């Protein structure tokens, strides 16, 4: 057990020079490649988190909704949504990685390995795998590989994230640059299929749509139609649920424009839930290749979504296929375009996520 | 297990003529009398749904609040609220019955048969029992009898609902008219009393009011006094909790006036919870005779409620009486009047519900 | 079991003189010293309440978040937050004590004795321990000692509260004045340490901060930095969750200014959760010495918090120290001042709470 002597939290000083007890977060200089951060505040989840996930998002994927349906697919019971697992794991990294972050730059090599069941306790650890100071000397990019573990010390999920972080002192020397080599796309062989998963007896009627893995074509685009106008109370409750307490989501006095930036993960979950309409059988998220929070989202926005099939592959598990999907959240419906001629995301694009999901063959 | 070949979902075509994967819902022509629709997305409930029901509504009926109180009334533990069971069952019908509905016309023959316990999984099935095209040829009325079943294939509850549905093609021929004969009021003998229910040792002090079945007179009206001003985030979370994703409740761009129509069931539950004040001992809802969502409800409305005792009867169960109640939700307090001289609901009336509840004798 | 004949609820008459069934609450004349009120609507809690508490407040104290962490501290599993227990117990007293209250004057002698676990059922009882009519004859102060009990009839927590209550009839004679002697501060010996609690193996890294009991100095002030802008839907859901249905929190037509007063307990929990930043290891709240809801709080306020260490002491339990803390919630950050030259709370002070918490030595 760690005691207070072994903690690597940087000493913080108040304005007057005395030691304060509050967390000022890590600045760019506080990271070293190879460092492992054991994030705080482990979290036990229950049917309460599952109910709340269903209240916050129009979540209808049957595997997460019904114990019986999950059992008919070879699982012991309905797991907590894969994205809920992500949010819990991510939320624990925020006090250590995000407090002085300027921007969330990307994700890679996200793999879901062990489902999360009611009663499980999750904790997070992150290894610093890259550092690169920016030429302006005021910020730098930090790459971390975060692992979420359950009470059996099993890997629940992992992902790489990189963020632009402020420096405490612009004159501090730059660390040696280390830029990790990351797979832009996970191969199907990199994916982990939950033990026992079997879609050979999959009930398409109870699932809500008849579309099989074989019915989707690479390049196909699906407009998920429905929109949800998001509210302040919802996104704050959703973000707090994962113990993500980043000020910008909660404090209307933080930004000069008085707006509370919606946690990007809230947009991910909203879009994923909306994607049920056309992708009801993309049940389990098992890989995350990339993600860009293209434009900020605020309360009052009507979020819509569309998807594109990027790739398909079979897996070893009975009746289980894998689809690689682009999930796009927008603040306006219409054409399914992502970027302008300048190569930048169009202003109505909120999210561009590249992930693998499992679907009955 | 159903496979995709046997689904009866109508083929949907995109504007360009290609098959789309999203659900356009059923139009009037897609229904046939006798058809059974096995609705999708079964749902397992837990203490999470019970906690959320208590957060969303000022629900204080003791039988649903306390395992001990429920046990003192002969039940194994506190069931999930009867209206929560209704919302779950109803929510599953929405993608199949409501997507192209113009108006919700009425309810009848609603019976609650088996309580819902944390851990239960519910699914819904509907049989089409009536069809009548409107003279304008653009819409028609569809009657469905919906049954909610649990994981033991026991009937949890059932009800008849009829909706006005758009036609896909105004020129399509009208089906043979079938209008079901429905009981305007269930007789006490039609009601199902949960097994083991026994009010002989009912604790009136812990229940919150001293009024017994014998203290209520037919014709008596009760003003429940309290008002709750409803908010967008709440009604959306409440509606989503039941996996009811009808656009009009969530998308502020859907209606020309930019408002999100509040799910009628949210008003039902709010009014029922408010009715605790004066009807604290009307514990279990066992029958639904009729219901009209008289006027739409939107965020910012202060909902109030009053009730009228329509009938009373004893039951076979020890100490258990039945009361037939009219529950009225309003957007303004004051006189307990329902309709104007023209026979239409007064503008401040939101809901007129006719139901049977069980009360200690 | 109580039957309706033995209830002591005062007879209520409608304006027309007939008996109404709704609860008009107790007026000052309805209280007698020594009277015991057995409050209604017991409540079973589950993981659902724990999840909701984490969604409503940025709660990160590890003992309540993680079963494993709680077990590492000698408890069977993670209890429900001590303040959640308080809100449940308090909420049940509202229909009997608060309906005609003009002001909440103070708290004293609050002791938490038995943690609350998912599955527990709580009920509340209050003994009237003091009465004092005000000289204007229109109101009087009522002191109650409220006890929360679980399903084993174990004392979960207790506290004394006094409120100013309206008189029904200004001409009614004043009762004999009884003003209870209350301890302004509980001694450490008055506190109850949960059975089995053991902080000798406390994991500071997983807890989130390295600060031990020995690192805090009496007189030290800690600014918790973060602010949360509160919303209508959240505070209403939070208050309803505890079955506290006092109109002023829910009905925007109740106050002339159209505002819904936020339940003071919502501010307590928000401030306590914010205090994690600097007091992450003040894990268990075991005593409440005093509390003032200094100024009202409304939606749109950005709540911040600071704390002051008032006292410290060791306890009998292994590795467990006690800290006495002042917790202040404000509607604006800045100087950590409480009162102006006139001895009144400054306008930006929302809450001043004096409590004991347990911390690893």
Automatic annotation (TrEMBL), chains A, B, C:
Transmembrane spans: none
InterPro entries the UniProt entry points to: HotDog_dom_sf, MC_hydratase, MCH/BMMD, Thiol_ester_hydratase_Rv0216
Source organism superkingdom: Bacteria
Record-linked Gene3D superfamilies: Hotdog Thioesterase (3.10.129.10)
Biased composition, class Basic and acidic residues, residue ranges: 1-11
CDD domains hit by this protein: FkbR2
Pfam families, alphabetized: MC_hydratase
Gene: mch
Full protein name: Mesaconyl-CoA hydratase
Region (Disordered): 1-21
């Amino acid at each position: 057990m760690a005691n207070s002597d072994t903690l690597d939290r940087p000493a913080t000083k108040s304005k007057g020079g005395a030691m304060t007890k509050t967390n000022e977060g890590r600045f760019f200089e506080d990271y070293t490649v190879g460092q492992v951060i054991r994030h705080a505040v482990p979290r036990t989840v229950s049917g309460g988190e599952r109910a709340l996930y269903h209240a916050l998002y129009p979540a209808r994927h049957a595997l997460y909704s019904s114990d019986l349906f999950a059992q008919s697919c070879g699982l012991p019971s309905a797991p907590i949504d894969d994205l809920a697992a992500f949010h819990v794991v991510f939320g624990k990294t925020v006090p250590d990685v995000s407090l002085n972050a300027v921007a969330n730059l990307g994700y890679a090599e996200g793999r879901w390995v062990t489902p999360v069941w009611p009663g499980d306790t999750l904790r997070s650890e992150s290894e610093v795998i890259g550092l690169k100071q920016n030429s302006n000397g005021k910020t730098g990019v930090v790459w971390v590989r975060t692992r979420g573990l359950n009470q059996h010390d099993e890997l629940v999920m992992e992902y790489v994230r990189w963020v632009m972080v402020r420096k405490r002192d612009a004159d501090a020397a730059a660390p040696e640059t280390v830029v990790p080599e990351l797979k832009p796309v996970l191969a199907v062989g990199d994916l982990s299929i939950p033990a026992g998963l079997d879609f050979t007896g999959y009930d398409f009627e109870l699932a809500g749509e008849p579309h099989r893995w074989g019915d989707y074509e690479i390049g196909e685009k699906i407009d998920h139609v429905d929109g949800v106008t998001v509210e302040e109370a919802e996104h704050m409750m959703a973000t707090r649920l994962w113990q993500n307490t980043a000020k910008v989501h909660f404090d209307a006095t933080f930004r000069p424009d008085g707006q509370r930036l919606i946690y990007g993960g809230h947009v991910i979950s909203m879009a994923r839930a909306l994607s049920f309409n056309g992708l009801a059988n993309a049940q389990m998220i098992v890989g995350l290749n990339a993600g860009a929070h293209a434009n900020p989202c605020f309360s009052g926005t009507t979020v819509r979504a569309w998807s594109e099939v990027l790739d398909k592959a079979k897996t070893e598990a009975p009746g289980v296929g894998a689809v690689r999907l682009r999930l796009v959240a927008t603040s306006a419906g219409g054409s399914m375009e992502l970027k302008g001629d300048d190569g930048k995301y169009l202003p109505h694009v909120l999210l561009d996520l590249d992930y693998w999901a499992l679907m009955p063959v």
